[in-house]
Design goal:
By secondary structure, the protein is of the alpha+beta class. It is built from 18 helices and 21 strands. The strands form 4 sheets. Strands 16, 17, 18, 19, 20 and 21 form a 6-stranded mixed sheet that branches. Strands 1-2-5-4-13 form a 5-stranded antiparallel sheet. It comes from Candidatus Methylopumilus rimovensis. Pfam families: NIR_SIR, NIR_SIR_ferr. Keywords: 4Fe-4S, Heme, Iron, Iron-sulfur, Metal-binding, Oxidoreductase.
Length: 549
Amino acid sequence: MYQYDNIDQTIVNERVTQFRDQTSRYLSGKLTDDEFRPLRLQNGLYIQRHAPMLRIAIPYGLLSSKQLRKLADIADRFDRGYGHFSTRQNLQLNWPKLEETPDILEELSKVEMHAIQTSGNCIRNITTDQFAGVAPDEIIDPRAIAEILRQWSTFHPEFSLLPRKFKIAVSGSKQDRAIVQAHDIGLEFYYDKEQKMAIRVWVGGGLGRTPILGSVIREHLEWEHVLTYCEAIIRVYNLHGRRDNIYKARIKILVKALGVEEFKKQVEAEWLHLKNSPNTINEGELKRVTKFFTQMPYEKLKDQDDAFDEVNKNNKAFASWVKRSVHPHKQKGYRSVTLSLKPHGLAPGDATSDQMRIVAELADQYSFGELRVSHEQNLILADVKLKDIFKLWEKAKAHQLATPNIGLLTDIICCPGGDFCSLANAKSIPIATSIQEAFDDLDYLHDIGELELNISGCMNACGHHHIGHIGVLGVDKDGSEWYQVTIGGKQGNDASLGTVIGPSFAAEEMPGVVKKLIDVYIKQRNPEERFIDTVRRLGVNPFKEHVYA
């Protein structure tokens, strides 16, 4: 866990004081809506459909049990007893009162948390792999670099008013679990031929209205230059990104308009002024920041446990959960465990305050008091001893945190949609729950196998529908809510964008549409072939023909 120093704490405390004064002046009429808007946005406060929405930052998805308990207390005291974990590894409160938001920020500051730059046209929450630091395929633990990026980008005076929001993801593993290709900047660490750590830099990715996967702008960047190179990229974007049209303002549009080679040429020219400047990182600085992260007191254990093997062999329900929710760990005798926030019939990504307290307790008992938030909207206990997994499962199951559906069709990624968001064209949560109800047979779900279903309530794509194996987008037609379906999207190293299969559907048709897509897959798949691979092999037409027959 990253521990604040005096500078971090002072910055957060002062921001609370500033925002309390700004809110007071707004409520007393001394600030207009237009004057208050950028101030509240840079503190994560939106005006939504029913109430303000406060987006709380969880840098690189890392939380302590103490912080989670604080979030639970805030949800009870200032909201309606629950929070929504988003695809940006943040937590959103849907019902806070405007006049109480400074109090919420003050409570957050007591546990080294804030809502700074979770909104506005600035560099947003830095994200990374939910298995950072424990994944067996990890090249480097990316969290120290992510933290350096956080410190550099927070209140960066040059990048506080960018043309649009700006998102950076860092991947330190062979398998990309941070979806670097779907970010404005994606940083992919690897070892070069000389076994030196280097970064492949992706730029110009993003979903939303014009979905584009990023392009490699620099194949080999010496890691020491990560800040100066990012600075060069964002400077070029800040100078030339469009400000006259919100829909054309993201860096992906600029890269597309200029062409990757011309954009790269301009970045490299800008970098000449920045390379080897004081923002160059050295080993000493990396080690200094790394020391602020808690080092886990791992025990020396065998990578096998007889009691675990026995119950895994004889308890079918436990074995099904283990298969989907328990992941390899670089430390012998330990595993990472995903706690599902996708029980059937409830809004994906939501957690009640009681569940938050239970997860905090589980983290204390079994995972050194830490947990992670995934962009798939689940929670991860990263450091669980193999021998403790059965006890953990029993407790998680009792609180609807152990649905064995991780990576399956009902592990739906879903934005809050029209139930809460003022930007949404259609509701998304009811679509997710209706699909979950239609696929409530766990044996059938496991037979279908790995399948990612993503739902967004509008073109802003907070549900990442473009990169879902099946993507659902809510659209508005003459005041009615309809749903457009894509297939073939995928996150990861071989990322792809889904293809629209045809005209949109009414809400009540959606479970049937998904069933028909699955029917084609079940009938046409080769042994052990995943849904995404069948779609890539067959193309869209067989699915389209069956759905619209």
